[in-house]
């Protein structure tokens, strides 16, 4: 989910808090408080200031909150520039070269439990090459973080797999995508999370403007 309204809708639909991941930029203090008070699996953190707010709210509620830190791997997703989110000039996540410093700092917060890494490089991807480059960097980073004592248990690989908008559209074979995840990341001994939003609901309606 990426908002308090989506959180409330999920809960109303019977989803328990320990199955909800709160992603997205611009989380408000009120939204963070709502999720902490009513249960959350993890927050995918976008920035250092967000870590400060999360810890402050968690402290005030005497809660311990699991967080994954979103890394910007500086990978060109080869998609439209308006839906590319993984290059260094895109304002999403922690820059790859600052990741270790941020993980070290995050581990010192009293009420945060660092549980993993999150990444999302863009939407409507139709080629596996950007995914492979991203996964290789994430695998390297997880290894470094574990060697430094960080208990990385989860890797959120985001979404972005494109869908067919016409009969001749090029799309990714999901079996090949699964094999790529297994081959590059399968030895990390982590739980994987995926965000295949468009892939699931893209064919469920039409937008008429």
Q: What features would you highlight for this structure?
A:
209 residues, 7-stranded parallel β-sheet, 14% strand, alpha/beta
Describe the 3D structure:
The two termini are 26 Å apart. Strands 1, 2, 3, 4, 5, 6 and 7 form a 7-stranded parallel β-sheet that branches. 36% of the residues lie in helices and 14% in strands. The longest helix has 19 residues, at 129-147. The model has no long low-confidence stretch (mean pLDDT 91). Helix 2 packs across helix 3 and helix 5 runs parallel beside helix 6. It is globular. It contains 7 helices and 7 strands. Strand 1, helix 2 (29-38) and strand 2 form a beta-alpha-beta unit. It is of the alpha/beta class.
Tally of individual helices = 7
Mean pLDDT: 91
Number of strands: 7
Distance between the termini: 26 Å
Strand content: 5-15%
Largest sheet: 7 strands, parallel
Question: Which overall shape is indicated by the principal axes computed on the Cα atoms?
Answer: globular
SSE run: HEHEHEEHEHEHEH
Low-confidence stretches: none
Rg value: 17 Å
Structural class: alpha/beta
In short:
By secondary structure, this protein is of the alpha/beta class. It has helices at residues 4-12, 29-38, 48-60, 99-106, 129-147, 174-185, 197-201; strands at residues 21-22, 42-45, 65-72, 94-95, 112-118, 154-156, 191-193. Helix content is 36%, strand content 14%.
What does the secondary structure layout of this molecule look like, with pairings?
Elements: H1 4-12, E1 21-22, H2 29-38, E2 42-45, H3 48-60, E3 65-72, E4 94-95, H4 99-106, E5 112-118, H5 129-147, E6 154-156, H6 174-185, E7 191-193, H7 197-201
Helix pairs in contact: 2-3, 5-6
């Amino acid at each position: 989910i990426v908002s308090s309204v989506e959180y409330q809708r999920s809960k109303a639909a019977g989803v328990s808090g320990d199955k909800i991941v709160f992603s997205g930029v611009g989380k408000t203090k009120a939204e963070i408080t709502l999720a902490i008070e009513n249960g959350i699996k993890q927050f995918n953190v976008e920035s250092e200031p967000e870590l400060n707010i999360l810890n402050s709210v968690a402290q005030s509620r005497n809660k311990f909150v699991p967080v994954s830190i979103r890394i910007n791997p500086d990978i060109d997703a080869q998609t439209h520039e308006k839906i590319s989110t993984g290059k260094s000039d895109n304002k999403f996540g922690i820059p790859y070269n600052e990741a270790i410093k941020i993980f070290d700092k995050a581990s010192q917060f009293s009420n945060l439990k660092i549980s993993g890494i999150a990444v999302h490089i863009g939407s409507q991807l139709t080629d596996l090459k950007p995914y492979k480059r991203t996964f290789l960097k994430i695998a390297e980073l997880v290894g470094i973080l574990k060697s430094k004592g960080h208990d990385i248990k989860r890797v959120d690989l985001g979404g972005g797999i494109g869908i067919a908008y016409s009969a001749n559209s090029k799309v990714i074979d999901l079996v090949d995508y699964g094999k790529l995840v297994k081959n590059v990341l399968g030895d990390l001994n982590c739980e994987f999370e995926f965000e295949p939003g468009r892939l699931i609901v893209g064919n469920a309606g039409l937008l008429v403007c």
